[in-house]
């Protein structure tokens, strides 16, 4: 992915608002693999990009590109969970997952990935209680909708890494504030400016 010459290659913000100096390096009890819908690749508001900067070992794999789909067969290994609502409430895993797969896109895109990618249908689910309080860049279609970064922070909290979760949410708040400044909305989100969120 090529960033604009006037934007940071890592966080995609312009130099005067670069997020990189504020990105913490967080320890997590598991690794994350973000399965990102192709439509999210170029969006400044793709929060998975910021989460990956803070969580070493996080891999972003793009889904839905014109070329052949990525090989995801390794995700069937024991200890892999998918971060997605479960049909029925389930307790958190007693042993931390080795890998957490995070579908990244709008709600409908994420749901279709879970339904259509065979290996994701077979994985146990790591579900969250609900979104954290705070300002968002996109209006959720569901009451429990949240950004990908917020969902990853929620997973950290469920898995006992509360401090890392809080620091990741603080990064999210800073990034949201900077995006709003870029859009000329320092005091809040204009309903016309937000996009649908998963």
Topology:
Layout: E1 31-37, H1 47-54, E2 59-63, E3 80-83, E4 99-104, H2 107-116, H3 118-122, E5 125-126, E6 138-140, H4 148-158, H5 162-182, E7 195-197
Parallel strand pairs: 1-2, 1-4, 3-4, 3-5, 6-7
Helix pairs in contact: 1-4, 1-5, 4-5
Notes on the protein architecture:
This is tRNA-uridine aminocarboxypropyltransferase. Its EC number is 2.5.1.25. It comes from Anaeromyxobacter oryzae. InterPro entries: DTW, DTWD2/TAPT. Keywords: S-adenosyl-L-methionine, Transferase, tRNA processing. The chain is an alpha/beta fold. It has one domain (about 25-60, about 95-195). It is about 30% helix and about 15% strand. The chain is built from 5 helices and 7 strands. The protein has helices at about 45-55, 105-115, 120, 150-160, 160-180, and strands at about 30-35, 60-65, 80-85, 100-105, 125, 140, 195. The strands form 2 sheets. It has a 5-stranded parallel sheet. The longest helix has 21 residues, at about 160-180. The chain is globular and about 45 Å long. The protein starts with about 30 loop residues before the first strand and ends with a strand. Residues about 190-198 have low confidence and may be disordered.
């Amino acid at each position: 992915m090529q960033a604009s010459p006037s934007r940071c290659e890592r966080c995609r913000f312009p130099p005067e608002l670069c997020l990189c100096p504020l990105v913490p390096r967080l320890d997590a009890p598991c690794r994350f693999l973000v399965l990102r819908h192709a439509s999210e690749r170029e969006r400044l508001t793709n929060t998975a990009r910021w989460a990956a900067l803070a969580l070493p070992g996080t891999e972003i794999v793009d889904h839905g590109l014109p070329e052949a789909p990525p090989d995801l067969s390794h995700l069937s290994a024991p200890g892999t969970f998918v971060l997605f609502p479960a049909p029925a409430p389930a307790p958190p895993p007693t042993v931390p997952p080795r890998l957490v797969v995070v579908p990244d896109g709008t709600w409908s895109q994420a749901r279709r990935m879970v339904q259509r990618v065979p290996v994701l249908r077979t994985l146990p689910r790591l579900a969250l209680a609900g979104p954290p309080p705070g300002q968002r860049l996109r209006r959720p279609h569901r009451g429990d909708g949240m950004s990908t970064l917020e969902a990853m922070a929620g997973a950290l909290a469920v898995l006992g890494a509360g401090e890392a979760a809080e620091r990741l949410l603080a990064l999210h708040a800073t990034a949201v504030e900077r995006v709003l400044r870029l859009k000329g909305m320092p005091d809040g989100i204009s309903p016309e400016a937000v996009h649908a969120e998963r």
